[in-house]
Automatic annotation (TrEMBL):
This is GL15403. Residues 1-44, 144-169, 311-334 are annotated as: Disordered. It comes from Drosophila persimilis. The gene is Dper\GL15403. Residues 16-27 have a biased composition (Low complexity). It comes from the Eukaryota.
Length: 334
C-alpha cells in the first residue's frame, strides 16, 4: 500500500506524459524498379483534347456547386469542403492553361517550318539565277583592279584607270604582229586671263612733297573734293613720288570726269593724268615698211584703223641699218 502511494507521488518523465506524435505522411520514396523510372509516354493530340474537355466540365461543375453554396443563406463560413473545391479549381485551371500553351507552341512550330520551307525554295531559285548571271557576266580581272578592290587608297583612281585602259585597248589594232598605239592627246589649255587694272588718277605736283600733295587733295578746308571720295578705293604713292588714286571697279564715275574735277579745283597747281582703258597708251612697232612712207602717212593710217583722232597719235621715225622701222604710240580701242 505504501509503495503504491509512493509511486503515485513520483515525478514522471515528460516523454511519457507527452501525447503521441501525429503520423505525418512522408514523401514517397522513388522506386528502384527500372520500369517505374521510365519517362511517361507522350499523350496523343486526341487524348490531350479529351482530357482538356473533361477538366473543363469538372471545373464547371465545381463552380456551380460553389455558387449554390455561397448563395445559400444558411452557409456563413468556409468549411473544409469549400476549401478543397477551390484547390481543385486551381489545379484544373493550371492543367487547362498548360494544354493551351502546348497546343499554341505546336501550331507556331508547324508554321515556322512551313515558312522556312518556302524561303528555302525561293533561296534556291534565286541562288541558281544569280550563279547563272554571274557565269554569263564573268570577265577577266586585271591585276591592278584586283589590288584596287582590296586597297582603299586605290579605289578613287579605279574608274579613271579603267576608262584609260579601255581607250588604250580600242586604240591598239594588231597589224601583222605589230600594235599601233594611238598618240595621247593633251587637253587644250585655256588662254591665260589678262589681269585688268582698275582705272586710276595720278596727281603730279612739281616742287611739292608727297605729304603736301596728299593734304592738297584729301584734306582741303573748302571740302570741294569730298564728293569724289566715294569713288576712290585706294590711295598710294607711285615710284616717282606722285599721288595715285585707284578708283572702284565698275564705278559710274569715269577717270576722265574725275580728272577734270581735279584740274578745276587745283587750278594748275599740279598736273593730273587719268589712267584707264580709253586713255592708256599702246606702243606699236611696225617693220618692213617702205622707205618712202612718212610719219604723217602712218599717223593717218593708224587713226583710220583704230577710229581715233589723229591728234592722239604720236609717232617717231627711227632708221637702222638692218631694218627700216616706224614706231608709233596710240591709245587702244575699247
Amino acid at each position: 500500500m505504501e509503495e503504491d502511494e509512493n509511486l503515485a507521488f513520483m515525478k514522471g518523465s515528460k516523454l511519457a506524459r507527452s501525447p503521441a506524435a501525429a503520423s505525418a505522411p512522408g514523401a514517397e520514396l522513388q522506386s528502384m524498379d527500372p520500369d517505374a523510372r521510365e519517362t511517361p509516354k507522350r499523350k496523343s493530340k486526341a487524348c490531350q483534347e479529351a482530357t482538356c474537355l473533361e477538366n473543363l466540365q469538372e471545373l464547371g461543375n465545381i463552380l456551380d456547386e460553389v455558387h449554390s453554396r455561397m448563395m445559400d443563406k444558411n452557409t456563413r463560413h468556409i468549411n473544409m469542403a469549400t476549401r478543397n473545391m477551390f484547390v481543385r479549381m486551381k489545379e484544373l485551371h493550371t492543367s487547362i492553361n498548360e494544354a493551351s500553351q502546348a497546343s499554341a507552341a505546336g501550331r507556331s512550330a508547324r508554321q515556322e517550318g512551313l515558312d522556312a520551307a518556302v524561303l528555302c525554295s525561293k533561296c534556291s531559285q534565286s541562288t541558281k539565277s544569280m550563279s547563272m548571271d554571274k557565269e554569263q557576266q564573268t570577265t577577266t580581272v586585271w591585276k591592278k583592279d584586283a589590288a584596287a578592290q582590296t586597297e582603299p587608297w586605290r579605289r578613287l583612281s579605279q574608274p579613271l584607270a579603267a576608262k584609260r585602259r579601255q581607250r588604250n585597248q580600242e586604240a591598239e589594232i594588231p597589224v601583222s604582229g605589230w600594235r599601233v598605239v594611238a598618240k595621247k592627246t593633251r587637253a587644250a589649255k585655256k588662254p591665260a586671263r589678262k589681269p585688268h587694272r582698275p582705272d586710276a588718277v595720278v596727281v603730279d605736283a612739281k616742287g611739292k612733297t608727297y605729304s603736301e600733295v596728299l593734304a592738297l587733295v584729301t584734306r582741303r578746308e573748302d571740302g570741294q573734293l569730298q564728293d569724289l571720295s566715294t569713288s576712290v578705293n585706294k590711295v598710294r604713292r607711285t615710284a616717282n613720288g606722285n599721288l595715285l588714286l585707284e578708283l572702284n571697279r565698275g564705278d559710274k564715275e569715269s577717270a576722265t570726269r574725275i580728272k577734270e574735277s581735279f584740274e578745276s579745283v587745283l587750278n594748275g597747281v599740279a598736273e593730273v593724268r587719268a589712267l584707264s582703258e580709253d586713255t592708256r597708251t599702246r606702243v606699236l612697232a611696225i617693220s618692213d615698211l617702205d622707205p618712202l612712207v612718212t610719219t604723217e602717212d602712218l599717223v593717218k593710217a593708224l587713226a583710220e584703223q583704230f577710229a581715233i583722232e589723229p591728234d592722239s597719235v604720236n609717232g617717231e621715225a627711227e632708221r637702222t641699218e638692218a631694218i627700216n622701222r616706224e614706231a608709233g604710240s596710240a591709245p587702244s580701242r575699247s
